[in-house]
Amino acid sequence: MFLNAKIETDRLIIRPFCLEDLDELYSVVSEENFHEYIPEETPTRENLEKNIIWSMQQNKKNTQDKIYKFNLSIIHKKDQKLIGFCGLGPDDLNMGETEIYYGISSLYRKQGLAFEAAKATLQYGFEVIGLSKIIAFVDYRNEPSIGIVNNLGMKYHFRIGNLTEQYKDFEGQCYYTMLAEEYFHKVN
Hints:
The chain is an alpha+beta fold. The protein is 32% helix and 27% strand. The radius of gyration is 16 Å and the shape is globular. It starts with 6 loop residues before the first strand and ends with a helix.
């Protein structure tokens, strides 16, 4: 379910990180403005390698009841190239919920590929893992990502504010949710 996961869509293969992803993944996440709406800094190549190794270790610990981190590479079928990442993991604000996240190379944006990856990840979370709820945090200025979560059918609840200094980078993020019953009602 986690170690050997392979999610396939019309145009994408989505699978867990592996060390062979390092160069292509680093190329994507170090693009100018890639982290514009992501509240974290661009990693060094060394830190990204450590993150890939850590992600692989987390997949050995992940269970249906507790996802430590489920980082996935997005591979473009036609180009056979890593074009981004997506996944599921504990929410960054430590609210005890499972968050969906995604990021895609600027060269592959505006083609519906990020939506395709997010939709497949959401589906995997509900149908294979059996999650009861998935959330998303989206920067209020990130119109493409707001479009993605809206098209997924996730519900907007509020903009996050009044955070402690530890979480100030998340100030203004929009909080979205989808419950399993909402997902299954939508697909049936």
